[in-house]
Amino acid sequence: MIKLKRREVLILAALWVAVGGLICGATVWLLTSRPAAQIGLGEPAATPSPAPTYTVQFVEVTARQLYPAAESLARAWEPDAQLAGINASWPATAVDQVGNPTDWSYRFYSPSRSRLYLVGVSSSGQAVGAEHFRQETSAPPLINLEKWKLDSSEAIAHWLDNGGGALLSQNPDIEVTMQLGVDPLGSQTVWFVTGSGSADGQGVALKVDAATGQTSVWQP
């Protein structure tokens, strides 16, 4: 049995709260931002990607670069552990700061145990993990690692070039969050990147295919 220090327990508790909030937030965004004409009609039309305009300044610490530390810990927990989700956030960020080194949260699922395992990896590469207390009644959608080709920095670049950069320029200090998961409207592995918290209530949410880079824009 893994014994955790008080500080590690507090970190993991905070990560669980953050993960729950991000999942709920993304679900609400998807349900409320979908245009009425598209409800029941499947996937919205993909938005052509414009010529790159913004450059992500921070590419040294990304979701893919920190993933081996998370996977190693999860496989030590259970050899059949599989990736179910990744997320991170940048509160009060700016165009030239979004994507800077931050802590990442990785969720794994073990079919043999029917449980989730959460791993928090700091920007310095230190990993802490713990098993979720509740047994899952059904397996969550799992990420196909072969289809995870776009790193977090590339997904952020797509978001900046498709409205996120303009949003941050006009509304500094808003929060940007991103998740890697399975598209609820299909089976693709996608990055879901959102920027919200502007004074006028505006936000930009993008769904970026992690294999092809195809981008869909969701507006409230």
What distinguishing features does this structure have?
220 residues; alpha+beta; 8-stranded antiparallel sheet; 3 helices; 28% helix; 28% strand; globular
Q: Which whole number gives the mean pLDDT?
A: 80
- Tally of individual domains: 1
Structural class: alpha+beta
User: How many alpha or pi helices?
Assistant: 3
Helix content: 25-40%
Kindly, what is the distance between the CA atoms of the first and last residues, rounded to a whole number of angstroms? 46 Å
Strand content: 25-35%
Uncertain regions: pLDDT < 50 for 5+ in a row?
21-45
- How many beta strands in the DSSP annotation? 8
For the biggest β-sheet, the strand order reads 4-3-2-1-5-6-7-8
Alpha-carbon Rg, integer: 17 Å
The main β sheet shows up as:
8 strands, antiparallel
Question: What order do the SSEs take from the amino end to the carboxyl end, as H and E?
Answer: HHEEEEHEEEE
Q: Can you walk me through this structure?
A:
There is one protein chain. The protein has 220 residues and is α+β, with helices and mostly antiparallel strands. It has one domain. Helices cover 28% and strands 28% of the residues. The chain contains three helices and eight strands; from the N terminus they run ααββββαββββ. The protein has helices at 6-33, 63-77, 152-170, and strands spanning 82-93, 104-110, 115-121, 127-135, 174-182, 189-196, 204-209, 215-218. It has an eight-stranded antiparallel beta sheet with strand order 4-3-2-1-5-6-7-8, with helices on both faces. The longest helix has 28 residues, at 6-33. It is globular, with a radius of gyration of 17 Å. The model is unreliable at 21-45 (pLDDT under 50).
